[in-house]
Design brief:
Strand content of chain B: 5-15%
Oligomer: heterodimer
Number of helices of chain A: 13
Structural class of chain A: alpha/beta
CATH superfamily of chain B: Thiamin diphosphate (ThDP)-binding fold, Pyr/PP domains
Shape of chain A: globular
Radius of gyration of chain B: 17 Å
Helix content of chain A: 25-40%
Number of strands of chain A: 14
CATH architecture of chain B: 3-Layer(aba) Sandwich
Distance between the termini of chain B: 23 Å
Number of domains of chain A: 2
CATH topology of chain B: Rossmann fold
CATH superfamily of the largest domain in chain A: Thiamin diphosphate (ThDP)-binding fold, Pyr/PP domains
């Protein structure tokens, strides 16, 4: 029997393509937008922008620290740099550069990070960063965004060009259901309640929003009504939406393709513990590195899929 | 800006050295050695060569920009900024104190005029300066970008990423300067981590190198900076190798790493100030 899903899809696409298409669009709209990439133009889908605006695009070679510094310098003079590389090299490798030259200096830079999380797949743990949300959200002045599908990533890319200040935009490699509308308005810092419910709230970000949508249908078959909230912006966090939902449902699950230490779940836990203590279950990676495999195999092995969200929801409800 | 006579510029150098010593002494922290060695550079740049506007705006369109990559020279930079009109000279009193705009290392958060990016964690300023220089080219702005780095700072890998990039993109509206004093915190650079032949290194990376052999002789510095300006616009970034002596101007501080990050005590301050005539009035 097929599930009665509240959101469906007819097409799958990678979120990085949503970034690439959005990037081209902001390039056409705003002549101050410039691009930088550390030898991963094809992987980041930045080629169309580079082709149309060769004078506004800078191949930096395999030198991410320099790329972040260059981007910081280009803001002085009014440019809006979009600096792209894999999430691993866009954060851990250049943390100090981002901390001093970008976040502390409040530079209007968009750090565009692809291939985040386990769904990078076969390349393995060296490239599967699961700590980046934590690192970036700890930095004062930094906005952290992790959209869920092609359409939302494209909308987010367009929205951050108009937002003044440093942004970390996280997206991924795998082909993924496109289940949000093409014409959506992306509001930074505003959570999106996708499905109404009363028994438990599932707060999901990135690829796992789709898994949360599937989990909601599975739970509904068992008579459990879950609310699904799409937290595309992890910082600033929409605390109002979180508290309003948990006040109604009384318990929650967080779902993210990230370490449970320092990710979205911890941000929600902090909100709840300060304002409305309630049971929270984490769906995320439990303090381990990833490994090679297909995205589906990895999400299953590390417990980041709909089945595990269902189990977590039941545990949360039991703890009420 | 009206050009000042060399005698007047020399007076500013002396006053800057007094400022630096008094600032680090007052809070018993900070880095006197390198700014004492760079006084002629800072004064020659800010009071003679730089086309700048002390009515500060962040974008600096149509003006020359200066970035301090070795942010620990903050005391010297602040003195020159204040004395060229960016903020009140009195404010030098607040250096490194609570609620001050004059942070231990330069920062933008408090809005100190003249500072366009935070520095202190070494190795980042050359990349920033190159980015700013490229933004100028995109904006059709023909003014120049300057950056100062320490020689010890060249041990950071990011510098060489930026060096490779600057030549590749022919960033020829950039004048970088290395404060070549041969000293760093733990000792002489040749003992800590030998820099070997810096001229050959930069040339191999595709830069035009301009040696300023007497970095503590004001006329030599002015001539050297003028020569560097004449070398711009020819397809290569410019690198000044500025030979200085750390601690220059105070007999017991000169030529040693000992005063890199140590302030003088009361007695040492009195001794040092007695060697530097108050020329423009202490803050």
């Amino acid at each position: 029997m097929s599930l009665d899903l509240k959101f469906t899809y007819t097409e799958k696409k990678d979120t990085r393509s949503g970034f690439g298409d959005g990037f081209l669009e902001v390039g056409r709209k705003n002549p101050n937008v410039v691009g930088l990439c550390a030898d991963l133009i094809g992987s980041l889908k930045m080629g169309a922008f580079q082709k149309e605006f060769p004078d506004r695009f800078f191949q930096t070679g395999i030198a991410e620290a320099n790329m972040i510094g260059l981007a910081a310098g280009m803001t002085i003079g009014g440019k809006i740099p979009f600096a792209g590389t894999f999430a691993n090299f866009a954060t851990g490798r250049v943390y100090d550069q981002i901390r001093q030259s970008v976040a502390y200096s409040e530079k209007n830079i968009k750090i565009c990070a692809s291939h985040a999380g386990l769904t990078l797949g076969e390349d393995g743990a060296t490239h599967q960063i699961l700590e980046d949300i934590g690192m970036m959200k700890m930095l004062p002045n930094m906005t952290v965004i992790n959209p869920c599908d092609y359409n939302q990533t494209k909308a987010a890319t367009i929205a951050i060009a108009d937002h003044h200040g440093p942004v970390y935009l996280r997206f991924g490699r795998p082909s993924w259901p496109i289940f949000t509308p093409a014409d959506q308005k992306f509001e930074i810092g505003k959570a999106w309640k996708m499905i109404d419910g009363k028994d438990v709230t599932i707060f999901a970000t990135g690829h796992l929003v789709w898994e949360a949508v599937v989990a909601e249908a599975m739970l509904r078959e068992e008579g459990i009504h879950a609310e699904v909230i799409n937290i595309h912006t992890i910082k600033p966090l929409d605390q109002e939406a979180i508290l309003e939902s948990v006040a109604k449902t009384g318990c929650a699950v967080s779902a993210e393709e990230h370490q449970i230490n320092g990710g979205l779940g911890d941000s929600i836990a902090q909100t709840l513990i300060l304002h409305h203590p309630a049971p929270l279950e984490y769906v995320g990676v439990y303090d381990q590195f990833g490994e090679s495999g297909t995205p589906t195999q990895l999400l299953e092995k590390y417990g980041l899929n709909a089945e595990n969200i269902v189990k977590a929801a039941k545990r949360a409800i039991e703890r009420k | 800006m009206e050009k000042l006579a060399i005698e007047q510029l020399q007076k500013i150098c002396t006053q800057m050295r007094r400022d630096v010593l008094r600032m680090v002494h007052a809070v018993q922290s900070g880095h006197p050695g390198a700014p004492l060695g760079c006084a002629e550079f800072f004064v020659g740049l800010y009071f003679d060569k730089l086309r700048h506007n002390p009515d500060f705006n962040m974008d600096g369109k149509g003006e020359d920009l200066f970035f301090l990559s070795n942010g620990h020279l903050s005391a010297g930079w602040y003195s020159v900024l204040a004395r060229s009109g960016y903020f009140p000279i009195e404010e030098l009193r607040t250096f490194r104190k609570i609620n001050s705009r004059l942070q231990g290392h330069p920062a933008t958060e408090e809005g100190l005029p003249g500072v366009r990016i935070a520095s202190g964690s070494l190795g980042q300023g050359l990349s920033v300066a190159i980015g700013a220089a490229q933004a100028k080219k995109l904006n059709g702005d023909d003014s120049l970008v300057y950056v100062l780095m320490g020689d010890g700072e060249l041990q950071e890998g990011q510098i060489w990423e930026a060096a490779m990039y600057g030549a590749h993109y022919k960033v020829d509206n950039l004048i970088a300067t290395v404060d070549y004093n041969g000293q760093q915190i733990d000792g002489p650079t040749e003992k800590v981590m030998d820099l070997k032949n810096l001229k050959a290194k930069w040339e191999a990376f595709g830069w035009e190198v301009n040696e300023i052999k007497q970095g503590n002789d004001l006329q030599s510095v002015l001539d050297g900076l003028e020569k560097a300006k004449s070398m711009t616009g020819k397809g290569k970034p410019i690198l000044n190798l500025l030979y200085t002596e750390m601690g220059y101007g105070v007999d017991f501080m000169v030529g040693t790493h000992k005063w890199h990050g140590s302030p003088p005590n009361d007695e040492q301050l009195a001794d040092a100030l007695s060697q530097l005539e108050e020329t423009l009035g202490d803050y």
